């Protein structure tokens, strides 16, 4: 593959796995793009050792991105977070923007965040606050996934069950994690909004995008696309 093309790093949401990205990976590969989809510890570790916080996910994503940026013949990266995945993703991007990387003599950087109905939040905010809900409290545990209709409401029953079979428990501690970096201030954000998303309502998506716009700084842009449905998890 040509190094002129960026690598796409796809970050799944809560209860999901890299396998849920299968159709998108196949499509991007068909167009000659390399794709990488890390497995988040908040899901993989949940059944036996639930993560206490969001940090393991953040570290995993950062290591994955740096492996692509710094490998021999490395390429720029476009990171694609979905849903919960936006919080550890943006937290992982400190110092990986083009200006910061160039200042250190690197030729590759994270050139864009392509968010799919995702929590792209300012530093210090968590998911509950973005939804204007109380921050949940409780014991650290592995949480079973919600009803499949919440994620796949627009799919046939057969397709819904196919993707639901891949869902796994989620570490409760990660779900209350706060963003630790306002990545949208230094990396362009492209935000795909989904009108019929049941997991992140359109009202929440609009609040997120409006917050990004309100914090706009020179050299950072937000692109909003309304409509469509959310079939990738």
TrEMBL record:
Domain of life: Eukaryota
Coiled coil (residue ranges): none
Pfam families linked to this entry: Abhydrolase_6
Residue span, AB hydrolase-1 domain: 8-209
Identification of the protein by name: AB hydrolase-1 domain-containing protein
